[in-house]
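Long-time lurker. I teach an intro course on protein structure, and each term I like to show students one example going from raw sequence to a predicted 3D structure in token notation. This year I'd like something fresh instead of my usual example. Would anyone be willing to generate the tokens for the chain below so I can use it in lecture? Attribution to the forum is fine with me.
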Amino acid sequence: MVAEKLLILNLKRGREEAYRQLIEEYGNRLLRTCYLILKDREEAEDVVQETFIKVFKKIDTFKEKSGLYTWIYAIALNLSRDRMRMKQDMLELKDEWIGNDDVESQVEINIDKELLRKEIFEMNSLYREVLVLFYFEALSIKEISNLLNEKEGTIKSRLSRGRNLLKESLLKGGRKNE
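-- Reply from a regular --
Happy to contribute to a lecture. Here you go:
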């Protein structure tokens, strides 16, 4: 813990050696995590690079309420989510250009996908994260457990609770001002 505080202090002072230490200490771990989320080595490398750039620029905003890696992980997770959304949007755009003779069914499918996406992203992050990793990234309970550093039972519980909340919300037709 003392070593981490010293690292943070040196990062805030802009010491080059601290930046090298940060990359050496967290780079591979972060790359592995991003790869598990994105399932694409090049994209994971890009996200890790973007993450470190953001960390270097925003280190002064780090309030030390959590561990340094937790803060860095949150940045990487948000950047990974952005990538996943961009990929999904690109796939949907590509599907639209390919065309479908049945325009009405295509519109219904897009509305359903948008509602589902909207509902998932409005959920509490505890459930949203697990649902996204399980359904959209097709990670196993064990992989999610390792990724989030939680017990498998906790992940199963969050997944179950998240499913129920999502189902309730969708049956009501969306959150409607909740």
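Some talking points for your students: The radius of gyration is 19 Å. The domain at 103-176 is CATH 1.10.10.10 (Arc Repressor Mutant, subunit A).
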